[in-house]
Protein 1
Amino acid sequence: MSMDALRKAISENMGAVNVLLVDDQSFVRKIVKSVFQDVDNIRFIDAADGSEALNTLQSLSVDAVFLDINMRPTNGLEALKAIRTGQDGLRQDMPVIMLTGVSDQAAVRAAVELDSNAFILKPATPSTLLDRLTRVLSKRQPMKSAKEYARVQLPTGLDEDAIVAPRLDPKSASAPTEPAPIAGSTPGTVVVKVGIQMLRRNDRLVDDITTKNGQLMVIAGTEVDDAMLDRLTDLKDMVAAKDIDVEREPDR
Amino acid sequence: MMHQDPRIDFVWLTAMVGRNPDTVAEMLEEFAGSASRDAAALRAARTARNADDIQYFAHRIKGASKLIGAVVCGEIAEALEEKAMREDILCDDPGVEHLLTAIDATLGFIREANIESELKGLD
C-alpha cells in the first residue's frame, strides 16, 4: 500500500488515536512525528525514556506505543515488561511497536517473549511506521498471564548486551552455508524446510531462530501464531540467513 | 578508511519529512544540535576512558544520522558501535576520532547547505 493510501486509511478508518512516542532523542521523536503530519486524527505524546513512558501511561489515555529499546536511564524492555505484567494497573495488552536497530539483537528475544506487537528496524521508513501503526491498531493479540511475562529475563545493561545476553555458539546456532538437519519427523507430521515468508499459522519451530550474529531470537518448540508471524516478518532482515525447519500440521 | 562524504541524502530526508524547505531546514537544524551534543558526550567519554559511553553515544549518533540521511556518518558510527559490542574497545580507538571528524564534516555541510537548491536538484 502506498504511503498516501496508508495515511488515508488511518484518517478514514480510525477514530482519534493517541500514540505514545518513546525515544531519548528529541530529534528522533520530532522526525517520526513529521511522518504523520498529514494524519489529522493521530495525536502524539512524547516520553524521553521508559520510566517517563510508564508515568504517562498511568495518567493519559494511550492507544499504542512506539518504544525505542536502547534508552537511558530506563530502557524500552523494562518498560515493555512493566506493561505486560500490568504493573501499577497498566493496560497489559497495550499495542507496542518496538523501534530496534541491528545492534539490539540481544534484546529482541526478550521483546519477542514479551509479545511486542510489532518491530521496526531502524532507520524507519515512513511507510513502515504507518503500516505497523495501522496493523497494531487493527489486530488484537492474545496475551499470556502477567506471571509468565514476569519470568522473562531481560539482558542486563543494553549497552553491554552483546556481552551479557545469552549468546549461542555460532557453529551450532547459525551456519548459513550449511543447512540444519531436519528433525522431528514423525508419522502425521510434515517437516518442511522453508523461509520465514513461507511459515504458516500453527507451524511449530523445530530449530531455534537466531539473529545474524548468533543471538537466540525465538526458541525451538514455539508455535507460530499470527502475532509471531507478524513479528518474524518485521524482523526478517535480522534473522540469520538459513532455512527454518518447522513441524507442520497436515492439512485437514 | 571509509570515504568521509558529509552529504545528506536529500532523497531519503524528503521521503521522511516532505519537501517543504522550512521543515527540511528545521530537521537539519535539530539533527545538528543533537549530533553536536552527542559528539561532545563522545569526546567526554573518550577523555574519561568510558567504553560503555562510547558505545552508547555511537549508537545514538548512528540512529540520528541514518534517520536524517547522513549516510556516511551513520555508517562510521555503526562500525564503531559494532566494534565496541564485539570486543573491549580501547578508548583511544581511531574509530572515535574518525566518527568525530565525520560529524564535523556533516555539520559543516549542513551549515553551508542551500536547502532550496538541494531540493530543486531532486527534480
Protein 2
Amino acid sequence: MANLELFDQDLIDNPSARVPVCLVLDTSGSMSGDKIDELNRGVQLFFNEVREDEMASLSAEISIITFGGTVQQVVEFANIENQTVPNLTPTGRTPMGEAVNLALDVLEARKKTYASLGVDYYQPWLVLMTDGAPTDDITGAARRTSELIQNNKLTIFPIGIGAEAHMPTLQQFSPKLPPVKLKGLNFNEFFLWLSQSITMKSQSTPGEDVKALPINPWADLTL
Amino acid sequence: MQTFEWKAASAYVIGRSHEKEQTLCQDRTYTLQENGIQVIALADGAGSAKLSHLGAEAVVRTVSHHVLKQFSSYKEMDSTAAAEQLLDVIMQELQQLAEQLDCEKQELASTLLFVASDGKSYVSGHLGDGLIAELNEGLSIHSHPDNGEYANSTYFTTSKDALVRLRIRSGECEQVGAYFLMSDGTSSSMYRKADDFLSPALATVASWLEEHDEETVNDALLQNLNKSIRMKTFDDCSLAVMTKVVCSNQSDD
C-alpha cells in the first residue's frame, strides 16, 4: 500500500483553537507578605504546568492584569513559550472595577484578532482574585461580566483570599456561580487546578460539556 | 463514448482525546450504491451525548437509504421542504432508537453530511460542522462548517434550530469528478480556514479510487487517518469520498 499514503507535507497545519485566559490579580498594599509571595509562586507554577502540557501549551493564551494603586496589563496575550512570568509587587489601593473593565476589553480585542486570522477559539476565561474590597466603582464592570456570562460569552472564576476578601462584591461579577474562597494561601493548588481545567477545555469537542474538576484541593468550602 | 460510474470509500478513527479518556469514537461514515446512484454520508456524534456514536451510526444509514430511494423527488424539491422531510425521517429514526435504548433523543445527537449523485445531478445536505468539498477543474468547497462562535459549539440533528441549519442543495454535477465529506477532526488537516484553502491531498485520495477497488481504498483511508491525520488533532477523524471513474468505452456507431 506504499502508493496509497499521504505524507505530512500534503496535510495542512492549522493553529490550535485558543483558550484565552485573563488573570485579574489584586496587588494592592494589603497583599504584602506571604500572600504576594504565594501568589507569585502560584502564577509561576501555572505557567510551568501549561507549558508542560502538549495541548494546553498550544491552546492557552494568558494575559495578566494587576490592580494595586494603578491598573496594568503586565502580561499581554501571546504564545506562552514567548512569555515571561512577572514578579508581582504589592502597592496602593484596589481599583478592581477598572481592572475588570480592562480585562474585558483585552479579551474582546483578542477574540477579534483570532477571528481576523481564522483561528478558532473557546469561550474566554477571567480569573478575578482579591483579598479585600474595591476602592473604585465596580457597577459598570459587574454589569458587563454579568451580561457576558448570561449570554454564554464569558466564564468567570471569582476567588477571595483571606478573611477580609469581600465576597458579596465578587458575587456581583458572577451571576451564575458563587465566588469561592481560597483555602489558606493554596495558590499552587488553585493554579494547578486551573491549568488542568484548561487542558480539559482545550480538548473539548462540539456539544461537549466539560465537567469541572473538584475544587476542594484549593477551595475553602466550610460554611 | 465513455461512460462513468461512482466509486466510494470511507473510514473513521478514534481521536487521541477519546482514546485517552477510554471512550468511543463518535464519528461514523456510510457508503451506498444502487441503481446507478451513489450516496456517501458522515456524522460526528455530539461530545456530551454518551450514545451519540449510535445516533451517528443510525443517521448515516437511515439518511443514505432514504435519500437513495427518494433521490428523484429530492432533486426537484424546494430546499426547505427537503430539509423538513429529511429531518422528519431522522427524528423518527432517533425516536425509535431512543425508545430501544431507553434514553433521550438528545443522547443520540450528531452532525450530518451527505452527497448523493447519479452522475448528472446531485443532492447534498449538511448540518453542523465538518466540510463538504468537490473536485471539479480544481478543489473547491461545496459546503462550509456551520459553527457557533466558539470552537466547541455547533448544530446537531436534535438542536432546536436544526431545521434552519440543515442545508439541502441540489443541482447538476456532470463536471464534478469527486465529492469529499470530512468531520472537523479531519478538516483540520485538509482545510486551512484562514484562506479557505483545501489540501491537494484530497485530489490524491480521489484518484486512488480510479486505480484501486473500494475495499483497498477503505483500508488506505483507515491507515492514513490513523497514521497522519489524527496526529494533527485530538478529535475523532473521518473521511468519505466518491469518485467518478470511467467504466467503459462504448462505440458511437
Protein 3
Amino acid sequence: MSRAKAPYIAPAERAAPDLDSGKYLVMWQGPNHPGITGNMSLRLVIEGDSVVDCETHVGYLHRGFEKLMERRLWMQNFPLVCRIAVPEPDFNEYCYAAALEELAGIEVPDKAVWLRTLSLEMIRLASFLMWIGGQAGAFGHGTIAQWSVTMRDYVLDLFEELTGGRIYHMYIIPGGVRGDVPAGFLRRVLETMDTVRKNLDDIELVMFHNVVYKMRAQGLGYIPPDWVDQYGITGPNARAAGLPRDLRKDLGYLAYPRLSFEPIVGTVSDAFERSRLRLLEMYQSIDLIRQIVDMLPARGAFRAKLPNPLHWKIPAGETYVAAECTRGEYGFYVVSDGGDKPRRVAVRGPSYTHGVALMERLARGVNIADVAGLMVSLHTYPPEIER
Amino acid sequence: MNIKDFIAPFAVWKRAFEKPFTVRKPIDERPGAPRYRGFHINDAKACVGCGSCEAICMNQAIDLVPVAGLPAKEGDSGLRPRVDYGRCCWCALCVDICPSGSLGMSNEYVWVDADPEVFRYTPGVEAKPWDKSELGYRRAEGYRLLDGQRVAMPELDHQAAVQSFLELVRGYSRQQAEREADRCVACGLCVASCPAHMDIPGYIKAVRDGQLDEGLNLLYETNPFPEACGRICTHRCEAACSIGAGTGADGEPADPVAIRWLKRYIADQVELADYGRALPRAEPDSGRRVAVVGAGPGGLAAAYYLRLQGHAVTVLEKDEAGGGMLRYGIPEYRLPYPALDKDIAWIQSLGVDIRYGTAVGVDLSLADLAASHDAVYLSTGLPAPYRLDVPGDDHPRVLDGVAVLAAATRGQSLGLGKTVAVVGGGNVAMDAARTALRAGCAVDILYRRREADMPADPDEIREAKAEGARLVEKAIPLEVKAIPLEVKAIPGDPAGALVAWNEARMVQKEDGQRPVPEPIPGAVHEDRYDSIIAAIGQGPDLAFVAESDGIEIRRFKPVVASDGRTSRATIFAGGDLTNERKDAISAIADGHRAALAMDRLLRAKGN
C-alpha cells in the first residue's frame, strides 16, 4: 500500500458502541495527564475496564508555527522552530538550518557539522531519558523517572554550558553553529556520559528485570510489521517491528557516515520491546557521543559567512530535509519564492502518525490502566503534532 | 519470568543512602553557566541606538526608547533598547547582530517582583544587580551576524596613479555594490549626520534590489550632484554609520558601509540619456525670475530646485566652466571632469541658464541683478586664499594652493620646479601635494600639528603618503627667505626659496581643548624648495556687495537666517560663503534649503 494513503480500516472491525445502552462509559484521558508529554486528549469508550473505542483529540497546543514562519525573516525563524518539539528542539534547528543552507547554496564548515552532530546526539539521549521516566511512571514506577530525569538534567547542564540555554538551545543557526565548545567541555561530556551510563545500568536492572513491568508491557500495543508502511511508522517503533530503518544510516547526513554504528532492530514490536530498544539506543547514543568527542576537529571555523540577516533573500526553490529524531523521521519541507521570508514551511513530525491514527487503532481492547503506558510506548510529543 | 525479575527491582534501595541530586534553593546557589542567556546588559555608552536589535527581534520584545542624559553626538540616535521580558524568548539574536557589540546577556536568571511593569526595562540605563556581570552570553569570537568588513574598492596602484591624473578609485561592479549594500541595516543614523539629509538607507536598498532608477530619484531628491558627491563627499555619514561602531570578526575596528561609493555606483550606472526616465521634470513656468551668483555645487543645487518649481533661473559664473571648487579645487584623479559635467548637464537640461565668464561686481552689479530678478541667491564661496602670514610670504615662489589646482584644471604649466613644500593639513593641501607629485616634484607637507589633528580626509592623507609625499609634522613656518646669490648662481638651477620652520611640541593648554603646538626653542630648520604652496585656507571675497545693497555682513560673512535669507528679503546666501562646514554637501544642502525658502517667497508674492 502506498504510504500516502490513509490506512483502510474495515467497517466490521470498527466498534460502534451504542452509548445509550448503559453498557459503556465515555471517559476522557487528558488534556492533562501524566501519560502524555504535553496537552492532548483521548476520548475513551470503555466497557468494564477495557477500551472499546479511542478517539484522539488534539488542538490544545496549536500555536500556528508554520503560518507564523511565513511572516518572519529567514533568520527570525531560527529562535522559533525549536519550540515545535519542546523536549527535543535541536532537530527542528538542524532541519530548518539545513533546508535553508541547501536552498541558498551555503557550505557549512566541517567543525560545525561535528558540533551539530554532537548536539543532536546529546539531545537524543536527553529526550530518551525523559521518555523512559514517563514509560516507567505510566506503569507506576516513579523511581525510574527520578533517576532518569536527573540524568537528563545533567545532559541539559552540558547544553547550558555549550549553548547558553537548557531547553531551547538555539545553537544550530543557519550557516553553522553559534560557538565553539568551551574549554574543558569535552572532558565534562565524557564524565557525564559515564554517569549516565552507570544509571542506565541501574535502570536496566530495575525496569527490564521487573516482573510487574514485564507483565504489563509485554504484549501491549503490538505493531505488526506490515503496519509500518501502512501507517507511516518510523524510528524505534518501526525498528522494534524488525525493520532496520534509521535515517542516520539511510540518508547519511551530518557526520554520521563517519561514525561507526548499526541500527538496532527488534523482533516483537510490543511496548516492552520498544522500550528495551530505546534503552539500547541510549547506550548507542553514549557511544556515538564518545566517538564524536574523539573525532571533533580542534580548530576551524564554526560558521559560514552569511548575508545580512535583515535582508537575506533565498533563491526560489523547495526542499525537504529529514533527520532521525528519537521518535523517527523528523522533516522540514521549506519553500522559498525568492523573498526574505519563507513562502511555506511544513513540519513532518513522527508524533502525528504515531500519536493519532496508530494510537486509536492500538488502544482498542487495552485495559484502561495500560492506556497511558501504551501512549508513552509510542513516544509521542503533542507539541510536535500541532505545529 | 524468572526469579531475577522478582528480586532485581529491590535494587532501588541502594540509592536510599546516596546524596540527593537536587539543589536546595535558596541555601545552595546555582549560577547560570558562563554562556547562559540571562537578563540583558547593555553598555549604554558604546551603544549607538541603531535599532538593529529591534529589527531582528522576532517577538518585538525590543523597543528603542529615548533616554535622557546621553551626550548628543552624531552617529547616536539617543535611543536605547528597552526589553520586554513578557515577550523576550532569550534567543540572543539581538546580541549576535549588535553592530557596536554593546549588548550582551548576563548569567542571571532569577528576578522576582510583584509588579509586572518592572519586567520592561532599559538595560544599562536602569541599574540592575547584573549590570557588571562578566559572565553570560556574548557573541563568540569570530562570530558576527553582520559583516564588519567592507567590500574592497578597486583602486589604481599608487605607483601607477602618481604617473597620471587617471581616476584613482575605479568604482564598484554590480556584484560588489550589491554585496556592500547588503551590509546596511537601514538604521538611518547617517541621514541625521548628512548635511543634506539624503535618504541613504533608501538608495542603498535601491542598490540592493537593483532598482537604480529609483535610487537615482532618491539621490536627486536632496542632491543634484551625485556623481561629484559619490566621489569627493566628506562622507560624515560614514563616520556615523552604525556598522562601523564596533569591531569586526577579526577584532579590528569594523568598516562603515561605503555609502559614498554606493552613491557613485548608482550615478555611474545610469546613463545621462536615461536620467529623464527616473527624474522629475520642471514644473510649468511660474513667471518668476531668479538669479544665482556662482555656479558651484551650492549655486547649482539652488538653481536645480528652483527650476524644478518652474522658476526661470539664471546662473552667473565668473569662470569659464561650472562646478566651482569641484572643478578648480579638486584634481581630476579624484573627480574626473566628465563626471562633474554629467551632473551639470542634467541641471542645464531642465532649462537652467548658466552664463559663464560673467562676474558680478565687474560685468554687472548686484543692485542691477536684484532689480531685474525676483530673488537672488549668493553662492560665491571662498575664493581668496589666506596668506602664510610670515615674513617673506610675498616671495614669488610662494604659491597659492587653490591657484595651483586651478591651473592644473586649466591645463596650464605649473612650473613648480623639482622640490615643493606644501604648508597646511587640509584637503586642499593634500590635493596640491598630490598634484605636485603628478607634476614630478618631490613633495614635503609641513603641518603645524600632528597627523591625527589634520583636517584632511584620512583617506587623502593615506593616499598622499602612499604616493610619496613626505609628511613633516609639528612644523611651524617662521619665514620664507630668498636664496643667497652665491647659492643661486649655480647654472641651470631654478630660483627657489628657503623655508625656515620651527619644530614644535604639542601642549595641552586647557582640558577638553585640543592641544596646541608650541615651538621648541632653538629647533629651527631651514630647507630649500623650488616652490612653496600655501594651503592654509581661503576667505570670502565680498567686494561685489555694496553697502547700498542692504546686506548685513558680520565677520566677513553675510548674516543669514536658517533658510539662507540675508537681511534683505529677496537675497539669499549659502555655501562656503556662510556655513561653517565648508564642504560641497553642506553647500548643496544650503542651496536646497534656500531654494525651498525662495520658492515660498516667490509664491507668496502672488501673480
Protein 4
Amino acid sequence: MRAAVTAPAKVAAEPDRKERIRRWRKGFRRRETWAAYAFLSPWIIGFLIFMAGPMVASFVLSLTDYDALGSPNLVGWANYEQLLSDPKVAKSLANTVVYSLMVVPGTMIVALALAMVLNRVGTRSAGFFRTLFYLPEVTPKVAVGVLFLMLFNGQVGLINEFLGLFGIQGPAWSTDPDWVKPGLVLMNLWSVGGTVVLYLAALKNVPLDLYEAAELDGASPWRRFRHITLPMISGTLFFTFIVQTIAALQTFDEAYTAFYGSTASATYSSDAALFYLIYLFQQAFQFLHMGYASAMAWLLFGIIMVITLVQVKVSKRFVYYEGG
Amino acid sequence: MLKQRKGVLFWVVLIGASVLFLYPFLWVISASLKPRSQVFDNKLVPDQVRPENYVDVWQAAPVLDWFVNSVVVALAAAAAVTLVSSIVAFGFAYFRFPGRNALFGLVLGTMMLPAAVTMIPVYLIWNSVGLANTQVPLWAVNLFGSAFYIFLLRQFFLGLPRELFEAARIDGASHWTLFWRIAVPLCRPALIVSFIFELKASWSDLLKPLIYLRDPELFTLPRGLKAISDQFGQSGEQQWEVVLAGSVITTVPMIIVFFLAQRYFMQGIATQGRKG
C-alpha cells in the first residue's frame, strides 16, 4: 500500500509508538511533505476560515442574545431552553420529520421500481429513458415550488383535473394543512431521476449467473428480488437512504418559494409547510435573532448526527458488502 | 435462457412514467404562452398563443441583469471549485505524507456538516468586510475547494499509473508540472464533471442569494423568480403567465447545458454512488 519510502520499516514487526512518532516527525523534514501541504493549503485555509472558525463562532453565538445590531451578551443555555418550549420549533420539527418519513421511502421505492424497469430494456433505450427521468433534476427547486402551486392548485390545478377523470375529488393540496406535505412529497417524486440512475448502475452490477442459478432452483421472481437483488444492491440503497434523509431534513427551496411569498397565504398562517430550515432562516435573517438561530442550527446538527448514527448501526444488519 | 418476457404492465409503467416526467415541462411551456385567462385550462396546445408574456416579464423585472448575474456567478463558482479542488485532490492522491489519512477523513467529515451551522458566522464574516450585498459570497468560498469535488477528483487521480509521474520526476519535472502537465490533461473528463455539477448547483441555489442579495438588480435568476412569484403570482392580480415565463427562462439554460453534457452528468452520479 505505502510506497517504497516506508517499505523497509514494514519488515520490522509492528513498530512501537515511539518509532511511529519518530517516523511521523521525520516525515516533516522531507521536501515532499512540504510540497504536499502546499497543494493542500487552499483547503486547509478555507477549512479554518469558513468551517472550523464559524463552527466555534456559531456555538458561542448560540450562548448569546446576538441580534446583528447591538453587541452580544452571554445568556448561558437560555436559547436552548427556549428551543424546548418554542411551539414553532416543535411544529417545524414535526413537519420536517413527517415529510422526511414520507419522501425518503417514497423516493427510494419509486426510484427502484423505475430502475428495475429500465434494467430490462435494451441499453440504448435505457439511455434515452434515463435522460428523460433525469431531466426534472436539473430544474431549479424554485421553479419546482412555483410549479407545485399551479399543478396542485385545489380548484384549477392539473392534478385534481386528472383525478376528476376518475371521479375523485382531489384535496386542496396547497392550502389544506393535512395535504400540503403529501402534495410536496408527490411533487418531489418528480425529481427521483438521480436516484434512478444510481440504482440502475447498481442493478447492472449484479452478476447474472446468480439469477440463472436461482431460476434453475425454481426460485420465484419475488424470491429472486428479495434474496438476490435487494442484498446485492443494499450498499447503494443504504447510501441513498442516508443522503436523502440528510437532504430531506434540510428541505427549504420549494416550500419557501411556494408558501413564504405572501403572508396572506393560508399555508403561511397554518404553519403546515413551516420546515425547520425555513424557521431557522426566518429567525436568523428576518427577525435577526442570530443567537437563537445558532442554537437551532446546533439542534439540527445533533438530530442529523443521531439519525445518521442510528442508520449506520441498523444498516450493519442489512447491508451486504461483497468480500466484506 | 433467462429470457425476460416484457408484459403489457412493463410497457404501461415505462410509458406512463415517461409521460409523467415529461408532462410538467410541456405544461409549463404551453401555459407560459397562454393569455392570463387560459393559463389554467390545462390544455397542451394553447387556444391562443401569446408570446408577449415573455415581453411582460422582461419589462416587469430586470430579467436580463438576472440572467447575466446567474451566468457570471455560476461560471465563477464552477471554475473556482474545479481548479482548486483538483489541486487539493492531487495533493491527496500523489503524495505520501504524515497526516494524510487524518486530513482526508476531515475533508469527508465536512460533507456531513449541515450548512445551517456555519451559515450565520459566515454571513457575519462577509458582512464585516463589506461584501454582504454583493455576489462575491456566492462563489468566493469555492476558491478554497469543496469536499465532494476533492473526493471525486482524487478518485480519478488515483486511477492514473504511478510510473507516469515517476518517469517525469526522473526527467526533473516539478510537482506542479506533474499536476498541470500530466494529471490535469489526463483527467479532463473528471474536471468537466466537477465543473458541470457545480454549475448546476450554483445556478439553482436559492438560500445564498436570499441571505446575501438585497438590491433586485443583483439577483440571480432563482432569486428573481422567487421575487416574481411573490409579486405577480401569490399576491396582486395573480399574473401566473408572467411567473411561468420567468420559470421557463430560469430552467431552460440548465436543460440546454444538460443536453450538451449528459455524459458527464451520468458519470458524476456514478461517482457519487461509489462514495457509499
